[in-house]
Amino acid sequence: MKKISTLLSVAIFALACKAQEQPRVSQTKEASSYYFNHKPKLVVGIIVDQMRYDYLTRFYTKYGEGGFKRMMNEGFNCKNNHFNYVPTKTAPGHASVFSGTTPKYHGIIANDWYDKDLKKSVYCAGDESVNPVGTTSNAGKMSPHRMTTTTFADENRLFTQMRGKSIGISVKDRGAILPAGHSANAAYWFYGKDQGDFITSTYYMNTLPQWVQDFNDSDVADSYLKPWETYYDIETYTESGTDLNDFEEGFKGKETATFPYDLGSLKDKNGGFDIIKGTAYGNSIVADFAIAALTGEQLGQDEHTDVLTVSFSSTDYVGHNFGVNSKEIEDTYIRLDIDLERFFKALDEKVGKGNYTVFLTADHAAVDVPAYLQSVKIPAGYVKAKEERVQMETFLQKKYGANFIENISNNQVFLNRTKIAEMNLELEDVQGALVNEIISYENIYKAFSATTMSTTSFPIGLEALLQKGYNQKRSGDVIFEYNAAYISYGRKGSTHGSGFDYDTHVPLLFFGKGIKHGQTFEKTEITDIAPTVSALLDISFPNGAIIGQPLEFVLE
Questions:
Q1: Cut 0.85: pTM above it
Q2: Active-site annotation, residues
């Protein structure tokens, strides 16, 4: 009887345990379903290269309802968004947006920079250890290996056990590679010249996927070798300057920088298919490729969030060539708005409304052509970098009996530290003497030594921006900044790179799943984007994101 009672107790206990286990399994499934249903299936990060904030407002009446306006009307507009470091260049900008940190930490201090160990200039994405895929050109020997931190795309890959995809797309290699991160499935960029194809490197794969081969074989690039005319009547482009002026470079083979531009007849003197990159059509082919990638890579088709990064770089080429006040830049943004609308429609159809989240920002803005500013009596001008270098070398030779300058680039002076040590001089003293010398130059506004950048904290002002861009291992011995609207550049076209508002103030728009509708004039910074997306996805922040903060007012 005791034995039967014991067996009965064991059976009852087992049944009780089984009854308790069942709800726990159900709860786990419900929690999992709730979790995945509340995350976007796809995050799309869009960078518009060289986009000033005021392009949203200047050209507003020319935009349709489905592009920029859709993001503003359905999403959240951060109107006072800024870069928080110098230099405001393409590679640092792309790295900073997606890593949530600045060159001080992610190491991408410029597009190209002088390597103090190798004693030569290196390219931000150049990598001799990989081979090109889709071309035989060295334009394919690229990877993200010089970026020292993760992006939110990397963190999403880690979180999903590499099940969530990460794809980067741009006409520029650095615009595709740096945002997608180290663990990306692929990065594709456009190679022009005599080819006109999207390519990649063996860092990602050994052969192009069939969908990319099909895209290249479809001769889409050829279809854009056509006349570039204004989308609307040029007389209605009242938001920009005159079409014929003295402030634009234009294309080789055409006497004036005026519409229309026959790309078919101009291509041979302007790099073949590369001419497409310098027109509004360069953005169109990126949109074409991004739409093809949605299907080709099956993005947003399962429970694991994917990341697609898209950089529209032709805006930068057009801005450099024609300036920020040109008819060409206005038409480029009108056409980009149309490309955005068809891209968003493709997202609606292929991923589904309410299943994806998009943000749009820029990697930097740009200054008005200084010659134009001078013509309307605004302080501006040009500096003669070669003459400045001669002055510096003459100063050092006179003071120390030797010239220690190895390189000057990106507003940084690199000194020969070995030579300084051999002469029993203190590096800090030489740096300080050079700072005191160059701050007397007419157009240099600020100058600091590496020692000062490493030992003094600057919480606000231009000094703080310079410090956030200063990388102790990679930056130079002396860094400097020119006066506002003074640039080392040709007299035609625009450029960028400073810490002044015309270079730092860029758009920041969010819309889609998990995003509130609204706007703010509260200051936000470019390094807030990656933490915000990471918070939306409930994943770890990128490992160098110690500066930015999630923008809670953007998230539902």
A1: yes
A2: 90
